[in-house]
Amino acid sequence: EEREEVFLRGFLGKMIFSGEEALKKSNVLSGGEKVRCMLSRMMMKRANILILDEPTNHLDLESIQSLNNALINFKGTVLFSTHDHEFAQTVANRIIELTPKGAIDRYATFDEYLSDPKIKELREKMYS
Predict the structure, then answer these.
(1) CA-CA distance, 53 to 27, in Å (whole number)?
(2) Which of 15, 40, 42, 124 has the fewest Cβ atoms nearer than 10 Å?
(3) Does 98 map to a domain?
């Protein structure tokens, strides 16, 4: 049981819950802490797919960086929506854009997707 607590505290430390913060009750957590707590729980359950809707919304810069690193190292699939350009660029390796005329699906970083002239042309057709 002591080894389990050491493991849990180590894991929570990576998600920026240090020392006594790891013992906080869930009803006193801030929005960002709740997000980090839920993400920690999902990762500890060894999920092989995460579905995240605007995961950086309530996080400070340090938390976003921790989340980025955790998701980059995550061995499973992460399906997410975001308005955070930097997050999309650092985490995504496949872009699926839903348009009025169907989906555009490409294996690319976000910046590659945005700058590709063929995709620009396709996007114009999909939105006209």
Answers:
(1) 22
(2) 124
(3) no
Q: Which two tokens stand for residue 6?
A: 């050491």
Q: Which contacts of 62-65 are long-range, i.e. CB under 8 A and separated by 24 or more positions?
A: 62/16, 63/16, 63/32, 63/35, 63/36
In a domain, 67, yes or no: yes
User: 12: domain range?
Assistant: 2-92
In a domain, 80, yes or no: yes
Structure-block tokens of residue 35:
């997000």
The secondary structure of residue 21, as a DSSP letter, is G
Q: How many domains does the chain have?
A: 1
- For residue 74, give the nearest of 86, 90, 61 by alpha carbon: 90
- Host H or E run for residue 44: helix 31-44
Dump pLDDT digits (tens) for 85-96: 999 999 999 999
